[in-house]
Amino acid sequence: MPAPASTPAPDPLDRYSRQVRFPALGEDGQRALMNSRVTLCGCGALGTVLANHLARAGVGFIRVIDRDFIETHNLQRQILFDEQDVADNLPKAEAAARKLRKINSAIEIEAVVTDIDHTNALDLMGDADLILDGTDNFETRYLINDAAVKLGKPWIFGGVIGAEGQSMTIIPGETPCLRCVIETAPPPGMTPTCETAGVLGPAVAVIASFEAVEAIKVLAGKKEALNRDLIMVDLWDWTFRQLKISGLLGKVDCPCCKHRKFEWLEGEAGSHTTALCGRNAVQVASRRPEPLKFPEMAERLRPLGEVRHNAFMLRFAADGYEFTVFPDGRAIIKGTNDIAKAKTLYAQFVGA
Amino acid sequence: MPVVRIPTPLRPQAGGLDKIEAAGATVGEVLADLGRQHPAIQERLFDGAEIRRFVNVYVNNEDVRYLDDLDTPVGEKDEVSIIPAVAGG
């Protein structure tokens, strides 16, 4: 009997043939993608779209970090999750990892269910070639910015509300960093959140897709093609703008990238959050540069139900939790002992 | 007259408008006129004479912080944009 013909091993590039044929990426770019590592911070609306694109594109290693569980109202826009994940009470990072492994078994996915803070940020980002923003709050984004600038690693910012969004690519030393462009986050009451102003799934997908293309350029070593502007899109009014920010590098007195003072990474800025023992409540302490404006906050929160406030506190209920907010930004959230959950609620209803 | 583009979160303080004509030859003058027309916006944009640190202002597509900040000249056909940070995701 003749020996069976040996079948050649399948070319690992075959499944990516349609993007390899895109000349600007090519085979060298694809091989670079397959040898690269990404840390994805947050796996909600932006994060699921980002993870989906990058896993399908063949990024070799993706660390998916998220502190939250999946709820039914996430399914409108968080494209990796389904009703079964909600029924199974899966953490977002774990559910995303399971889905991503089914999409592409040739890459490595690591699920990390944690709250990114100053104690773990450098560990989670230190071995990555690129850090991606899938978060929903500026507290975490400034922490990512600190870590990325300190480590000298590129990261990509994205934010969405309603039908509009922003994105920018940050290459430490070459472009302005997040704090050069957005010196400080708007205080609560001045900024809508997805919970108060709503958000459309396609708008998130557009911004996350901008981030994903930039990620592919960074990882494939095609830096010359990177976006150097602050991109602003409003898909309802149909406006698209490229705001010039490159002139800010070195011009603004940035504490982070100019003075290398990493306030979030050193735990000087940001929240100091503790569970209040035996009270089924968590205190979220977020230092604010100026006192909260309760009348404006109350007006913004009014669609959620009754909001009571005096000079010392503001109280409202949402999603079955009771929030008591103090002028300095501190809040007590009743109905949970889970610090990560409380921080999510704080970002959602009080503000970034 | 220069036009100021009002971002979505500030439109309730601007009678729902997305663009408002405001007089002035510098960014500071244009925003001051905007504040006179819509006083509720004034407080959102300024802390005393200083622009609030979380508010970014652009003339056409250029950030005024690498131009001359509030002294940046504004021409009759220029567009001044107030750009808030977008937090969600």
Please characterize this protein's 3D structure.
- The complex is a heterodimer of chains A (352) and B (89).
- In chain A, 31% of the residues lie in helices and 22% in strands.
- Chain A has 352 residues and is an alpha/beta fold.
- In chain A, a hairpin with a 4-residue loop joins strand 11 (307-309) and strand 12.
- The radius of gyration of chain A is 21 Å and the shape is globular.
- The model of chain A has no long low-confidence stretch (mean pLDDT 91).
- Chain B is an alpha+beta fold and 89 residues long.
- Chain B has one domain (3-84): Beta-grasp domain (Ubiquitin-like (UB roll), Roll).
- The N and C termini of chain B lie far apart (36 Å).
- Classes of the chains: A alpha/beta (352), B alpha+beta (89).
- Chain A binds chain B through residues 42, 44-47, 133-138, 158-162, 164-166, 181-187, 190-194, 197, 199, 204, 207, 229-230, 232, 234, 237, 241-245, 247-248, 251-252, 289-290, 347, 351-352, and chain B through 8-9, 18, 44, 47, 53-54, 56, 58, 61-63, 65-66, 81, 83-89.
